[in-house]
Amino acid sequence: MNAIGWERAILGSVLSDPAGMEHAEVLRPGDFTGAHKQIWAEIAVLHRRGALDTRALIEALRSVGVLETVGSSDVEIEGEEYISYLLNFRGDAVPEYVERCLENSTKRQLGMVAAAIRVDAYDDEVSAQDALDQAERRIVTLRRTGNVEGVSMVELMAALTGRMDGLLDGSIRPAWTPAIQPLRNIIQYAEAEDFMIIASRPGQGKSSIIRYELGTLAMSGTPALIINLENSEIEYARYLISMHTGIDSLKLKTPGRMSDEELGMVRSAMEDLQHIPLHIVSLGSPSATEVERIARQYVSKYNVGLIGIDYLQLIRNNRQSRVEDVSETSGTVRSIALRYRVPVIAAAQMSRNIIHRGVDAEPELADLRESGSLEQDATIVCFPHRVWQSPTPDQLRMFSENIDPDGFLYSQERAVPIRILVKKNRNGGVGQTGEILWVKYNNRFSPLEMEEEFL
Questions:
Q1: How is residue 64 annotated by DSSP?
Q2: Pairing between strand 344-349 and 444-447?
Q3: Domain residue ranges of the chain, discontinuous segments joined by +
Q4: Residues 23-34, mean pLDDT to the nearest whole number
Q5: What angle do CA 355, 288, 129 make, to 5 degrees?
Q6: In terms of DSSP bridges, do strands 436-439 and 415-425 run parallel, antiparallel, or are they unpaired?
Q7: Fold match between domain 3-169 and domain 181-381
Q8: Residue 39 · residue 33 · CB < 8 Å
Q9: Closest among 294, 299, 331 to 312, alpha carbons compared
């Protein structure tokens, strides 16, 4: 089947059975050709409204004045007749049709990039170095956006109209709303195309926040994916059980320390958690391309609504310098959110520069480690920051979680107050959250009101 045939297979299949959009939502109008672009733009809007069917599509195309011209040069039919003709191509292999369409779209875009590179190569007024630099930029742009054809105002207005109507009538919900309430008070929610970085030095809570947010989302029934580059899968099982029950995660390593009641709670939690749609993929120093492949697979197969990556600097692309390496990672991860319309939350390390500014120094965007592209590509950048960098015994005693049954402080802190500093938010406000109690032993976060004298 040729490229037009695969496009028709997708269009006919989702018109015949809108449930197929579960697999096809990753496609954008720019992935189609000719009149199929406009048809897909209207299909996407109708799907978001929950009103997708053949008649609704015909009327939507009529309302924007293009119905009579939709068709294809290889058949002599247009308008309503062409929409009905598309139903002849329906099938039950929508994921395959999507993959074929994406492949053809990428190859078309690559062909255009190749043509532009060829023009520069034969232009006597363009130096060889400039041609090389421009070729690299074009290829990076292709890798980052996955769509060098752009998007028309017709497509943009159709998408925005559908989104506004859906938000008003409740048929569209934000892509992701933070479970940590003080954070939600600042950023409100993330759009489907958002790429959020949570950065800190070790021990400040960045990985815990990602586990908490994705675990909470999955427990609510929304599929989520964690691309794990640091911990073992069994550790994630302990984290989730501890979050669910409140039982110390260290006890899960030595179950003999647990009471019968706690063992019962753990077994009940295991039964509950085995059904939540959380997927964990562990990779050892993968390339950004491999991470993108995993993301595409899980978006297509499981319709995940949020992707977490822990953490960015463990992705390796074998570039000459770490700056180049991290820049490629950042651009590729950004393209995941843009292309598949799923928000991405990624943990990132900060440089040691902050240490030289003092123990209580507030993190800044410039502290992101190894690459300015992290700041550039991210739409939201947050820094978890402890209220007390070196808490005193009296400060730790303010929280019962730090006191053992005999009234003594545990040898290691188990609960500390933090704030989250939102330093960048491309589509919303920035600022500092109120205090949040981070209970380290069960990976929970909760709003906290502290008297001024203790801050």
A1: T
A2: unpaired
A3: 3-169, 181-381
A4: 85
A5: 90
A6: antiparallel
A7: no
A8: no
A9: 331
Helices (H), 246-392: 249-253, 260-273, 288-302, 322-340, 353-356, 373-377
Distance CA 7, CA 2 (A): 9
Q: Where are the alpha helices (DSSP H) in 348-418?
A: 353-356, 373-377, 393-396
User: In this predicted structure, what is the pLDDT of residue 87?
Assistant: 94
Alpha-carbon gap, residue 158 to 308, rounded angstroms: 30
The CATH number, out of the four listed (3.40.50.300, 3.40.1260.10, 2.60.15.10, 3.40.1390.10), of the domain defined by the range 181-381? 3.40.50.300
Give the span between the Cα atoms of 106 and 115, in whole angstroms.
Answer: 14
Query: What is d(CA 28, CA 148) in angstroms, rounded to the nearest whole number?
Result: 12
Let me know: does 61 contact 70? Beta carbons within 8 Å: yes
All residues at 6 or more sequence positions from 445 whose CB lies less than 8 Å from its CB, including other chains: 179, 180, 208, 209, 212, 436, 437, 438, 439
Asked if residue 150 has pLDDT above 60, the reply is no
pLDDT in tens, 285-344: 899 989 998 998 898 888 899 999 998 989 999 888 888 888 889 989 998 888 788 999
- What CATH number belongs to 3-169? 1.10.860.10
Token code pair at residue 283: 């990779």
pTM metric for this prediction: 0.66
Q: Write down the residue that tokens 């815990």 correspond to.
A: 208
* Centroid of chain to Cα 190: 9
Per-residue pLDDT tens over the stretch 396-412: 999 999 999 999 999 99
Angle ∠(83,44,338) on CA atoms, nearest 5: 135
Tokens of 122: 């034969």
CA 391/CA 141 separation, integer angstroms: 47
Q: Say if residues 419 and 436 touch (Cβ distance below 8 Å).
A: yes
pLDDT (0 to 100) of residue 169: 73
| Percent over 70 (pLDDT), the chain | 90
pLDDT band at 148 (very low <50, low <70, confident <90, very high): very low
3-state secondary structure of 233: helix
**What's the average model confidence in pLDDT over 43-47?**
84
Dihedral (Cα; 187, 188, 191, 197), 10-degree rounding: 30
